[in-house]
Every structure is written in C-alpha cells, then in structure tokens.
Write a structure and sequence with these properties.
about 70 residues, alpha+beta, about 10% strand
Length: about 70
C-alpha cells in the first residue's frame, strides 16, 4: 500500500505542505513519482511506499497520529 502526500500528512498530523517541504529538501521518507501518462486523471503523482514510511518513522522516532 502506498500513501499520497495528503494521506501521509494526515497520518502524521501535519500539513501537506510540510510533507512537500520534506520531499523538496530530501529529508523525508523515500517516494516515487508516476508519469502523467501512467496515472488516472486527478490522482496523485507522488506516492510513498508504506515500508519506507514505517522505516522512516522508526528511524526518526515518529509515532503516527492516524495509523
């Protein structure tokens, strides 16, 4: 299962812009992008694999608010 930026922000109880900032600075969990041609209209282009999120949370002592 992969999470969108909005879903990850909700999980951590922060704003989506904060998650985007982590991504921009390279300080957040690993993510991947989907080509515009390979995704349904209106779907998220950036996804975070759950295993990367769990590893990041453990390494950084983050307890999700909404697991």
């Amino acid at each position: 299962m992969d999470l969108t930026t909005d879903q990850l922000a909700a999980r951590w109880g922060i704003k989506p812009s904060t998650v985007r900032g982590y991504r921009y600075r390279g300080t957040g969990p690993e993510y991947y992008t989907i080509s515009r041609l390979g995704r349904p209209l209106g779907s998220s282009r950036v996804l975070y694999p759950l295993d990367s999120i769990l590893a990041f949370e453990e390494a950084n002592h983050i307890t999700p608010l909404n697991p």
